[in-house]
Amino acid sequence: MNSISRLKHRMMEYDWGSRTEIPRLLGEKEPSAHPVAELWMGAHPKAPSLIETEGRWASLSDVIEKNPTDALGRETAEKYSNELPFLLKILAVEKPLSIQVHPGKSEAEKGFERESEQGVPMEARHRNYRDKNHKSEIICAISQFSMMAGFRSLDDLRWHVRRYCPDSLKNQLSLLENHPAPLGLKRFYHSVMTLSPQAGGRVIDEAASRANAEADSAGRWIARLSESNPMDMGVLGPIFFNLVSLEPGEAAYIPWGTPHSYLMGLGAELMTNSDNVARGGLTSKAMDIPEFLRIMDWGKIASPEMEMASETGAETDSRQSSGFKIIRPEKISDCERIYPTDSKEFLLSCIDCSESQTQIATSSKSVEILFCVEGMAVIIETDSRRVMRLSKGESAIVPGCVERYSITGPAKIYKASVPTFIS
């Protein structure tokens, strides 16, 4: 791989997807026969992209394996054992995704080995670990995007429990009131999620009943979730977690160990190259409540500052102190804005160029993946003068060996790359 090449992304059909959003993005007939939830652009073993090379289509994983230094760039190849460290997706969310948590590196390695030794097939419905990688992610809203992420501040959480479950969670509420964070929150949530089916049903019934009389966002989501997921403890998610609405162009960074659920919208998602997940509600897929609770990073999602803010009445943005952050882009050129995080595996940016405004890219000597979400881009490799036209719904890979290239629009492109501080 020695030049910019076209990719053929993999389409994933899940019941929470949309029959219109991704087909419309790809210029295909809509509505589709089945809900289309995700487009994958990367080299994950589950569904590697195809790359156009020497007039034919080949697995991106195989092409990288044959010449990782040229494909990934020397530093990235050495740092990440000759593997592409990120996975770029387009998500179309029409129904809420499962409430889920992703593991850290140590948990992922141990979990993968454990399930492999137990003989759990890689595609088994109940398998949590399909690779040895930790998983953090960033979601950037293409349309308005609704989600739950991270626990509410303790004061806010107590208020919502009293509002929606004052009788059925009376005993559990005392755990929040009598123990400091993170211990109190951990004991509270463990107690709720391990209730018997009968006791859990009473909590859901009380919350759903009260939600019908409330007009706030938590009440509206509880009512909606209880209709589609009766007797699922995930219905209580809006009580426990921050409800966030991202405007187009805003993003949320979710580190491993943070509970979250995407509720509605179209977004570009960039993550560590992993498909590891433990689910705790709102899903027809297999749930593993003990593992879901075990791999939460309680020190991060239930910091002492949560308790301090509640005790002092200090005004804080709970979205920034409960395990995830809202990220607004930083302009680094006339055409490009980046979404900075502390991830060493990936960096998301948005390139917005016109016929009169060209993006001149000096390679970081590392691999990049481009996805065109609007218009048509003309991409020219500076040294070879090779030209590629990238239309809406198409993707391409820029190998690490390409030194410089330019992009002319009008086009809007999401770019996945490796941060320059990987070493």
Observed structural traits:
423 residues, alpha+beta, Jelly Rolls, twelve-stranded antiparallel beta sheet, nine-stranded antiparallel beta sheet, 23 strands, 28% helix, 29% strand
Could you write a compact summary of the structure shown?
This protein has 423 residues and is an alpha+beta fold. It has helices at 21-26, 60-66, 68-72, 74-79, 105-117, 154-164, 170-178, 183-193, 197-211, 217-228, 237-240, 289-294, 298-301, 304-312; strands spanning 5-8, 10-12, 38-41, 50-53, 56-59, 86-93, 99-101, 137-141, 145-151, 241-246, 251-254, 260-272, 278-281, 325-327, 330-331, 336-339, 347-353, 359-362, 368-381, 387-391, 395-398, 404-408, 411-417. Helix 9 (197-211) crosses helix 10 (217-228).
Structure, explained:
There is one protein chain. With 423 residues, this protein is an alpha+beta fold. It has three domains: 206 residues, Jelly Rolls (Sandwich); 86 residues, no CATH class; 83 residues, Jelly Rolls (Sandwich), CATH 2.60.120.10. It contains 14 helices and 23 strands. Strands 1, 4, 5, 15, 16, 17, 18, 19, 20, 21, 22 and 23 form a twelve-stranded antiparallel β-sheet that branches. Strands 2, 3, 6, 8, 9, 10, 11, 12 and 14 form a nine-stranded antiparallel β-sheet that branches. Helix 6 packs antiparallel against helix 7 and helix 9 crosses helix 10. The longest helix is centred in the middle third of the chain and has 15 residues.
What's the helix and strand layout?
Blueprint: E1 5-8, E2 10-12, H1 21-26, E3 38-41, E4 50-53, E5 56-59, H2 60-66, H3 68-72, H4 74-79, E6 86-93, E7 99-101, H5 105-117, E8 137-141, E9 145-151, H6 154-164, H7 170-178, H8 183-193, H9 197-211, H10 217-228, H11 237-240, E10 241-246, E11 251-254, E12 260-272, E13 278-281, H12 289-294, H13 298-301, H14 304-312, E14 325-327, E15 330-331, E16 336-339, E17 347-353, E18 359-362, E19 368-381, E20 387-391, E21 395-398, E22 404-408, E23 411-417
Helix pairs in contact: 6-7, 7-8, 9-10
